[in-house]
Amino acid sequence: MTSAQNALLDAVAALVNAPLMSIAERLREAVLPYVGNSALIIFTEDCTGRPQKKAGAEAIISSVSVPELDQLRARVPEHGHWEGAATIAGAEHPVLALPSETNALLTLTSPQLPSEPEERAEALRMLGYLWGLAALRIKEKVADAPPSYLLESRAASAERLRVTAELVDRHSTTLETLLAALRSQSLDDRAARRNVTDLAVKALVELRTVSDRTTDLVEEPVATAFERLREDLRPLMHFSGIDVQFIEPPVNGRALPGEVAHAARAIVRGLVLAIVEQPEVRRVRAQWDCDGANLLINVRDDGQGELSADSPNIARLNARVAALKGRMSVEVMAGWGADVQVTLPLDPPSAPVADAVGWGLAERELEVLQLLAAGQRNRAISGQLFISENTVKFHLRNIFRKLGVSSRTEAIALAHSHGMRAQV
Questions:
Q1: Count H helices, E strands: the chain?
Q2: In the chain, N or C: fewer CB atoms in 10 Å?
Q3: 152-176 as b/e, with b when 16 or more CB fall inside 10 Å?
Q4: The pLDDT of residue 349
């Protein structure tokens, strides 16, 4: 085996075993021998709290935005790759972008490909192979994510939605006021009024689009999530000969948080696979319902009731359910089959605020963090605590350092994931 082959195997092993937050770095290390680049950006809807995973030039990865990646994805074909100039991190860059079967997008800025056609084709083939592997691993790792990741990701998703909605409301009011003024009959310059009106309307549309896009990232309609489950199980239905019946949820049911939708599909897939391993199973029924606060899952079979609630497969699925503070019960009836009930809460569970003791915050710092988690700005915090805004900023710097975060949004998400919102 050559040294190049050994290096490739080592890179694949590192990529496969990488934790979620390091997968972009491992992927970039793996592809650099084939395609040079200044930055690598993964845009995935599997991670609703962290849709971007990035490595490379800090000026790019610190400023690239979801709307930019969303606009780029509209230009990328369903299969193959796309090359051209695109706006990334507020500036135009040469870009190489690849889609994936999981609907994730890979973006390389300033790509460097071999000039020889055969070498270029081989470099693109290896890039496609490594990216496909990484995209599948992201999807699998999200399904198997530990409770801490799920809690933090859901809190970050909710906070991002709240901040975006706040920005939309604020700027929409400003722009609507501007439109009313520009349409006033007291303004004589019609051409100027028309031009500025068009610009303001465009800005409103863009703001609304960002808000809608953010909502789509953190939530998935229950009917859409169930249809994706059906597509996941279609190959099994085709090759196993087992009749999998789907009882669909109400179309108007509450939308599912992204982590719940992904986990629910993984749980049902696991249950169905465990069930079909039993002899004499001819039919499996999968049903979803929603009571407004929980996703209700029911999977049952017509076998001989040989499914073991203590089997390793069922234990792993039960751990996934527990990660979302859900419940799973398995009822096995000899000669009649098995009936599995799963309940997944739709709202993020709150961890005890006592967990915050480990952060080492002083009493005043904890008060500032609680008000920050409640959505208060520096001026409001200073007013409630009778301290200056400079003192608030001083406490916030200490809080960020102790929590290991770099922004208000990250601090708020971490506080929410520890239940701090309920203490304000």
A1: 14, 12
A2: N
A3: bbbbbbbbbbeebeeebeeeeeebe
A4: 54
SS3 sequence, 318-369? HHHHHHCCCEEEEEEECCCEEEEEEEEECCCCCCCHHHHHHHCCCHHHHHHH
- What is the per-residue pLDDT for 35? 94
Count of C-beta atoms within a 10 Å radius of residue 311: 13
Mark the ranges of the chain whose per-residue pLDDT is less than 70.
1, 45-51, 142-178, 180-182, 184-188, 192, 195, 199, 201-218, 239, 348-358, 419-424
Helix segments in 35-146, DSSP class H: 58-61, 66-73, 117-143
Cβ atoms of 226 and 245 closer than 8 Å: no
Nearest Cα residue to 161 out of 210, 202, 206: 210
**Alpha helix (H) residue ranges in 18-57:** 23-31
Cα-flanking dihedrals φ and ψ of residue 257, to 5°? -60, 145
> Partners of 94 in the beta sheet?
85
Q: What distance, in Å, lies between the first and last C-alpha atoms of the chain? A: 62
The string of pLDDT tens digits covering residues 309-335 is: 778 888 888 888 887 788 999 988 888
Spatial CA neighbour of 15 closest among 132, 114, 111: 132
Q: Rounded to an integer, what distance in angstroms lies between the CA atom of residue 301 and that of residue 173?
A: 55
Nearest to 365 by CA among 418, 410, 422, 415: 415
